[in-house]
Amino acid sequence: MNKSCIYPGTFDPITNGHIDVIKRACKVFDRVIVAVALNESKTPYFCHEKRINLAKIAIKDISNVEVVGFSNLLVDFAKDQGINTVVRGLRAVSDFEYELQIGYANASLWSEFETVYFMPSLKNAFISSSIVRSVLRHGGDITNLVPKEILEDIKGKKC
User: What SS3 class is residue 95?
Assistant: First the structure.
């Protein structure tokens, strides 16, 4: 089977939880596109270009993964890529409720659109980009929260 998927998000920044989901998706799909959303409505900590670069560094050793930035609707981006499957990560029940709504909304925009959900391992289940940003703002240690390859880049300038 030659099947691809898109793993979208703001990745502000990419975390060990994201990497966990990417590796799980790689076991099921031949190709995974990490799609970094511009999404300025969330007021990202890092600029779009920096988030894309951090993701590229973090996944560089995973052969069937590529990183692409996008700024349009996910469904339109997926159509442009010729991919109808999206992967989303679920950490808790609260994630499920939100992701279910988004999944239904996307399916209403494109009937061929499928959403597949992956759970990170238990050791990564609590990690979110917002937790990483909060720890960063307060000068805490993010060593166990993000890929070691991007640790110094994250501590540097936002853009």
Answer: helix
User: How large is the average pLDDT for residues 55-83?
Assistant: 97
Task: Give dist(CA 3, CA 18) in Å, integer.
Answer: 20
Q: Would you state the structure tokens that stand for residue 143, as one six-digit string?
A: 């060593």
Note if 91 is an active site residue. Answer: yes
115: phi then psi, degrees, rounded to nearest 5: -115, 130
Judge whether 77 and 70 are in contact, CB under 8 Å: yes
Respond yes or no: is residue 155 known to be catalytic: no
Count of other CB atoms within 10 angstroms of residue 94: 9
* pLDDT computed for residue 81 by the predictor: 97
146 token code pair: 């993000």
Indicate the pairing of strand 114-118 with strand 4-9.
unpaired
Residue in 3, 42, 148, 158 annotated catalytic: 42
d(CA 20, CA 153): 20
Please indicate whether residue 129 is annotated as part of the active site: yes
Q: Is the previous residue joined to 13 through a cis bond, with omega within 30 degrees of 0? A: yes
Question: What's the rounded mean pLDDT across residues 49-78?
Answer: 97
Specify the pLDDT at position 1.
54
